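Notes to self after the Tuesday call (sharing in case useful).
The group wants a holo model before anyone commits to mutagenesis around the pocket. I volunteered. Ligand is heme C. Logging inputs and output together so the record is complete.
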Amino acid sequence: MRSLPVLFASLALASTASTSLAVDFNTEIAPIFAAHCAGCHGADKGLGRLRLHSPEAIEQGMKDHSDLLIAKDPDKSELYARLVLPKDDSKRMPKGADPLSEKDVNLIKQWIAEGGTLVTADAPAAEAPMEEAAPAKKDVPERPKLEAASPEAMKAVEATGALVIPLYSGSNELRVSFPSSREQVTDETVAALVPLAGQIVELDLSGTKITDACGESLKQLVNLDTLHLEKTGVGDATVSWLVEMPYLAYLNLHSTKVTDASLEALKSVAALEKLYLWQTAASYDAAKALEKHTPGLEVNLGWDHPGVVRERLTEELARVEAENAAAATALEEAKKAMESAEATQKASADRLGEIKKQLEELNKPAEEAKPAEGEQKEA
Ligand code: HEC
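Result:
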């Protein structure tokens, strides 16, 4: 039997979060970074290889520093942990300045605890200290404004143990995840999300018990732009249900049963920008073909995928070959220089011997023909 206290706790969390209490990155967090951090981590300066002046910059930071922002775990996230170090700790941020106010620190903590999303609310530009948004990409349609979910639909979905939060405060766009009940999530749970099909834009089903039987329900969530299916039992059949999703930009299939057939099918998802395929049967060639087919798409096969290893080694090969050739030339030149120095030394040694000999010769007769006593040869 599922544990009731856990279920209640997640329901309580879900209902507080789904009233507009969620921290909004754009209006609440970005201004803190702009005021206290951007001097060193901004558009002009990237100390510690970190910039915090835009969502894109923070995303890059997350790539460069794996523990910068761990969704739902502020204590493990450098972005929060560095703020609450003892005052004399040299790693405390902002460096060399007074600590942030308790209110700001708590906002950042809550924001990360809620998932640390970087989605920018479509608030008036004046409020946003962000740089201009990334250029609108390719011919992917804009998602129309979504209608608010009905309270009944919200309740029905929350009753599955889902955590339902708006993407930013006041937004009708919803993010659904199962932080405390992954183990209980099945294909039926996915079917139970359908009442919110119009509002769910981010869905995290990672690590759940879903199978390919969930595809038909998933297909109805037509507004999805972010879908986590990693570490589940889904395969090509599920992916075949996703191919008509107009806005799907992020798809994580890490550690699933998908094969190259999924990659072929995903060619029809024009919005796709990020596709994760670590530890799957997907091939390097199919991944490259898909990237080529879909502009702006980055397929991630994982660091240890044989094709990726080959690419990395091939690049390194070229570099090391060039290095090796340069070193060989340098060695050749050094050898020549050494030979020439040796020749010079030998020649001068020979000459030295000759000069000494000649001088000795010159001195001999003078000694033999000793001047008579008292006679001064030289003044
Ligand atoms: C006066 C300059 C300065 C200011 C202001 C500043 N930082 Fe830093 N920060 C640095 C330097 C230098 C480093 C690299 C050395 C280090 O890791 O301590 C750094 C490193 C970091 C790192 C570690 C990155 C990593 O994972 O290696 C984080 C996180 C960070 N800063 C966050 C912040 C935040 C958040 C603020 C604003 C509240 C801030 N910093 C303000 C100078 C600054």
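Two things stood out.
The two ends are 125 Å apart (CA to CA).
Residues 25-120 form one domain.
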